[in-house]
Write a structure and sequence with these properties.
CATH architecture: Alpha-Beta Complex
CATH class: Alpha Beta
CATH superfamily: Spore Coat Polysaccharide Biosynthesis Protein SpsA, Chain A
Number of helices: 7
Number of domains: 1
Largest sheet: 8 strands, mixed
Order of helices and strands: EEEHEHEHEHEEEHHEH
Shape: globular
Radius of gyration: 16 Å
Length: 205
């Protein structure tokens, strides 16, 4: 496998979206769905393959909204984010050396941010590479094969954050000036603010 194609991406889109009342993956912004925008941004930054994890009842619609991505179905999404991440990681080829993962509720993350994480990992491979601004950590998060294996082996009583916190090989924080890497949409109010802030600008430009 070529070095430039060994960073995959997993988009977590199996949540219930109970606070917003409809699947966040299918919300629209600038003429695209959240999941469609995110997949396009990840692909334009060099991630491949890209896999979207959906719940059984939304899988068909999400697959149609992001036809460029592979689709994996978490049969038990109520078990939480880690179970969705494990579903996605299990579906990736064993040759993948690192993976970016992010929830589907950050539609405005920019291509430059994703590209910076990949470039930093290739320059100095660390177990975890993540964006940071003013002391706050954002998404996507890039993890290497060591952390991927730890996540896959984790029990249901563990969390993604806890596993990353105790990872071997260190964490590299990459400073970014990208509001979209930290702006998650959980409520209708968040959605309205995101629409105002985006000014329907394509996030990869």
């Amino acid at each position: 496998m070529e070095p430039e194609s060994n960073v995959a991406a997993v988009v977590l889109a199996a949540g219930r979206s109970s606070r917003i009342g409809e699947p966040k993956a299918l919300l629209r912004m600038g003429g695209r769905s959240f999941v469609g925008r995110i997949v396009r941004t990840l692909a334009s930054a060099g991630a491949h393959p890209i896999l979207v994890v959906a719940a059984p009842d939304t899988a068909a619609a999400i697959g149609e909204a992001a036809p460029e991505a592979q689709l994996a179905v978490n049969a038990q999404p109520q078990r939480g984010q880690l179970s969705s991440l494990q579903t996605g990681l299990s579906a990736l080829p064993p040759t993948i050396a690192a993976v970016l993962f992010m929830p589907v509720d950050l539609p405005l993350v920019r291509r430059d941010t994703v590209a910076a994480l990949i470039a930093e990992w290739r320059r100095a491979p660390a177990a975890v590479v993540r964006p940071v601004r003013a002391g706050r950590h954002g998404h996507p998060v890039l993890v290497d094969r060591r952390v991927m294996d730890a996540l896959l082996a984790a029990g249901h009583d563990q969390t993604t954050r806890g596993i990353i916190r105790h990872c071997a090989g260190g964490i590299t924080d990459v400073p970014v000036d990208d509001e979209g890497a930290f702006m998650d949409v959980d409520t209708r109010e968040d959605y309205a603010r995101a629409l105002e802030g985006s000014e329907v600008e394509d996030p990869i430009l």
